[in-house]
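USER:
I wish I could look at a protein chain and see how it folds. I am handing you a single protein, as its sequence and its fold in token form. As I understand it, each token names a local backbone shape. I hope you can help me see how the letters and the tokens relate. The protein I mean follows directly.
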Amino acid sequence: MSQQSEDGKVLADIIKNVHRRLRQELKESGDPESSWINHCRNEARLKLLFLCKEYAKSMHQLATEHWERLRESNPDTSRINWTWSFLSNYFLGNGFEIQRQKSKLNIDWPKLMLKDSKISVLDVGSCYNPFKEFKELDVLPVDLCPALESVYQCDFLTVPVGEKTFLEDQSVLSLASSSFHCVVFSFLLEYFPSCSQRWTCCEKAQQLLMEEGVLVIITPDSKAAHSNSKVMRSWREALEAIGLKRIKYEKLLHAHCMAFRKTSIDPPTSEDRQLLASKMYIPQDFHSQSDSEQEENDHIKFTEEELAEGFTYLPMLND
């Protein structure tokens, strides 16, 4: 193994250890909300503040030194390239009109409004603002533990949604509803240790998006496209119930890439919300052993229908 690959593995292990710690705290407390609050508060303690900064530093280094090299050598594996390609096609190309035609709604569609010809993007869990290079994007990068001073500190789970976006001293005090063309969750949802927290993030994204805006979700997975198709289908069903219809899916070498278009829909009941939240699971939610042991022994069982659906995710069959 090359030194570069070995360094990448060390950085990835640091990040995974933080995720393991969160999942373990949830198992011990049984309360997702208190586990998250304690996690955020503990970052103020000297020891765990170092851990938080190490996490941000590791994520930044992994992304800029290792993923960026891979992005240059093999652009088709890049989540940043994928997101930019989708956004430019949807908002600046003909993707927007194609989706309107697919909806088959006989209405007078409003004109797409881009302020200063830019796409307004909220990049949640941004770390180092990787989308800043694209001049067509107006990006608000936020992160719980920013790696750079240019990224705003924000706990997305708890930040209020109101009439205006308020920023103060590189922190986000509130976010304006229906104000973004796109919300990006890139390697974000798996950070949270419970289904309910992932669901809360998606509901909040729905509130922040303009009508016909898009939620981009990218989640890591190095397995074959069909291996976790059951999980991806569950997410799709949950988000569709709140008016986030999946319009794009692609499996890259190490990630699932999805785009969901916001449409008008009646909000679910509180009872339905609990059921929908449970659909936002990830395989790690069911691990009882260490991650490394479980990954070797974990096998998700599929019905014939689910396996058949997995084959529809192959690239040549995508929209």
